[in-house]
Amino acid sequence: MAFVVGMILISSIKILPEWDRGVVLRFGRFQGVRGPGLIILIPGVERMIRVDTRTVTMDIQPQDVITQDNVSMKVNAVLYFKIVNPEAAINNIEDYYFATSQLAQTTLRSVLGKYEMDDLLSNRDKINHSLQEILDEATEPWGIKVTAVEMKQIDLPAEMQRAMARQAEAERERRAKVISDEGELQRSEKLAEASRKLSDSPSALQLAYLQALGEV
To answer: Are residue 72 and residue 119 in the same domain, yes or no?
Structure first.
């Protein structure tokens, strides 16, 4: 008997580390948030649900996205969040982690679908910030603070990748031609300037003629 009583008493004592909080329920009703440190529960009357308040890193699985200009792509991202209200995280949502994951996936598809492909590729920071604000507001009733969202990888269809590679190659060739044309122009301008100087100075022209004869 003493052994049973001892085990009950031991099971009623909880120790929470600095990053944990305990949501205490008495006969199923919320009593308060306790911790960190030593927590003593009334055996058979109270129970405690642990909540980790550290920042959580959540991978958002690759999502099929169709941009505003009808380009199909797969996009994955990472979301950072933490529990700031343990009571809301336990009482207002059945599974806050699963709910946040599902919401992040649908929000990613919805927000990215409002952008054209070029904007999506060139404005990642702006879009990441927009995703963070939307998700932070939506998860606030669940006691969650979304601190950051980052798109990790954007996979374009193979045909689109080849088209972009051809476009990049054409742009490199265009720039190379511009540089070559500029070099030819500068060379022509220098020759014209030298010719003008020689024609303006008969002595210089004669000297150039004598130098040419000496090289023959």
So the answer is: yes
DSSP per-residue letters across 136-201: HHHHGGGTEEEEEEEEEEEEPPHHHHHHHHHHHHHHHHHHHHHHHHHHHHHHHHHHHHHHHHHHH-
Residues 152, 101 within the same domain: yes
Same domain? For 36 and 88 the reply is no
Strand partners, 80: 57, 148
Distance of CA 105 to the CA centre of its chain: 14
Q: Which residue has the tokens 């199923």?
A: 28
Q: Which one, of 136, 133, 134, 112, lies nearest residue 124 by Cα?
A: 112
Q: Based on the structure, what is the number of domains in the chain?
A: 3
- Could you read off the pLDDT of 162-216 as tens digits, one per residue? 555 556 555 565 666 666 666 666 776 676 666 666 566 555 545 454 454 455 4
Expressed as residue numbers, the domain containing 68 is 56-156
Structure tokens at 177: 């031609």
pTM over 0.85: no
- 164 in a domain, yes or no? no
Question: Within this chain, do residues 71 and 117 fall inside the same structural domain, yes or no?
Answer: yes
C-alpha span between 3 and 23 (Å, rounded) = 28
Angle between helices 96-112 and 124-139 (to 10 degrees): 140
